[in-house]
Amino acid sequence: MKYEVEEVIWKKGDGEMPPDIKHIVDVAKGELLLESLELPVDVANIVRYNADKSAQSINNYISGLVVECLVTAS
Fold first, then answer.
1. What is the DSSP letter of 56?
2. Residues 55/44, Cβ–Cβ less than 8 Å
3. Residue 51's domain spans which residues?
4. 0.85 exceeded by the pTM?
5. What total number of domains does the chain contain?
């Protein structure tokens, strides 16, 4: 995916984040989550692939996995 360089100034109090910027922020959050979990590279790649395949963010995909495991364990 290629982005055109734009100067976008957005502050939390400005209301809704522009969709293209929100997408970039969500991708960065997902990558930070994967990095903090210290998963093996092949597992992180599987998570990225499965999240993309199911049209979810990495955060939502991992959250779903955690909830599913907790419900199963209960």
1. -
2. no
3. 17-73
4. no
5. 1
